[in-house]
Amino acid sequence: MKELWHRARESLIGLGAEVRFLLRLIVLVPGALLRFDLIMAQIWNAGALSLVIIMLSGLFVGMVLGLQGFQILQRFGSEEALGTAAAIGLVKELGPVITALLFAGRAGTALASELGLMRATDQLSAMEMMAVDPIKRVVMPRFLGGVIAMPLLAAIFSVIGLYGAQLIGVQIMGVDSGSFWSQMRAGVGLADINEGIAKSLVFGVACSLIAVYEGYYATPTAAGVGQATTRTVVTSAVVILFLDYLLTAAFL
Amino acid sequence: MSIPRGGVTAVMGPSGTGKTTLLRLITGQVRADSGAIEVAGQNLRTLRRAELYALRRRMGMLFQNGALLTDLTVFENVAYPIREHTDLPERLVRQLVLTKLQAVGLRGAAYLMPSELSGGMSRRVALARAIVMDPEILIYDEPFVGLDPISMGVILRLIRRLNDTLGLTSIVVSHDVEEISTVADNVFLLSGGKVVAKGTPQELRSYPSEIVRQFVGGLADGPVPFHYPAPDYFSELLATGEDS
After folding, report:
1. In whole angstroms, what is the distance from residue B17 CA to residue B20 CA?
2. A–B: how many Cβ contacts below 8 A?
3. CB B45 within 8 A of CB B55
4. Which has more pLDDT, B32 or A169?
């Protein structure tokens, strides 16, 4: 019981520190936007390099949606609704959530271990000694790069996923192509897309923050960096799913 | 303790006596809980962040392993402080970087990556980076650790030469007694977080103190005991092990 209380306290303190770190980053956003070349490099790092895994996963998730959706809808004789069902599922839920989970695994771990190793090899201290603020120069571009890359990746995921659903539903299962697309266009509103964008933005902030925070404050040893990477994935996954519930409830 | 302007000052002492902490205090990486540290007339404890950064632009520091930025070439590493702090034209940046690399003898390695350098070379590149903004104070954190005798000789000579030609104030933390004695003007010997001796290297050799004799002579036992504090040897050996 005492242990549990202690743990809860610890994680609350950790959360507080993380929020303070976030506030410190937010204050620095305007200044960081002046060095957009640095952010671009990080969008490339976090975004472009995650494209393959995002696109592949999107395709398979869409194909599964096509199969499952078709099976269920067929029971009610409404296969034509497959387009709507797949699009709403992808844009509102699967797109943002799975993209964020993959992002945490692919880009988040890379960020955390990179920053952790920079800390361990004194590179961050060396920057401070050169009167260069590592938060501004190293952490900020990585954080913003992640925040910008996430909605883009989620959008790509949804589009590819929709193509996958269409591939199975229309090309293989024989749903009428015209009704697949027209029902989708009629059934998916701007509000749905906004919800998806809002979610992926929030997940982008959460994932990037957790990664840079864990990396920046990693214990400067081999074990410490490993721990920071693990914590990045675990914390990100839990936080994403928790935030997803909150956001879904808020958008109802 | 006060470190005179314009000389090479060595700070020595057994491991764990606070040498690195002292450097971190001087450079403002950690703040003192009590007492005062003044660098170039400014008290570090009351300095604000911007003022501290302004002061740091007048200092250079060489970290133990060089701490080069691993994603940049040697050239870009040395150019880094210039690019961050000034808007100099590319031609001038190039000349500055090449002259500093020439000073440490590594102009030919300008386009290598840090991972391709040996330990001694990394440290020389880091030295070039530390002097590229023409600092007034240059701080070396254990610059000889893990170097072969040739690299060590090179770094030693560089410390002296850079200090004299650039008119620097150098602070060297080290425990290589012999080596540092050949270049240092003054030596502070720390032990247990206190200054136990100060003077020129020659004065230190005949210093009337146990700890200084142990350190300078490299004796295994003395005021700094060979044994880590432990319970009595025999009783621990004879104990069954269950009750310990």
Report:
1. 8
2. 49
3. no
4. A169
